[in-house]
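pls design
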């Protein structure tokens, strides 16, 4: 039996995963479809070109939450993450990317294809 319209539209529950890194526990929240689109749009510069510069940091800004599910960071905190240990950002980004359903290279491909299109 296939899923009903009502059951599909009721799939609004958040999913969480905890990551323990260097003795600290980080909580990552799934993204709604709207949040996923907002994240991908946040990777565009003012000319509409995708840039890889914020790729990892913005995903963490959008997905790191406290124990109550409230975001730890605001969009404006993205630049502050530049100073955080690169291994910490890398490990959390890899886990957040997987938790949010992105393929291994999907996000990187978006920014790369944008660069190639701009060069044409």
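designed seq:
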């Amino acid at each position: 039996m296939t899923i009903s319209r009502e059951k599909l539209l009721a799939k609004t529950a958040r999913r969480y995963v905890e990551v323990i890194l260097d003795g600290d526990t980080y909580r990552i929240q799934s993204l709604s479809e709207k949040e996923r689109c907002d994240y991908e749009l946040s990777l565009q510069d003012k000319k509409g070109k995708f840039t890889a510069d914020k790729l990892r940091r913005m995903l963490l800004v959008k997905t790191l939450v406290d124990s109550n599910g409230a975001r730890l960071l605001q969009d404006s905190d993205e630049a502050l993450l530049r100073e955080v240990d690169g291994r910490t950002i890398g490990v959390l980004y890899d886990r957040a990317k997987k938790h949010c359903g992105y393929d291994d290279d999907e996000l990187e491909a978006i920014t790369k294809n944008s660069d190639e299109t701009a060069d044409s």
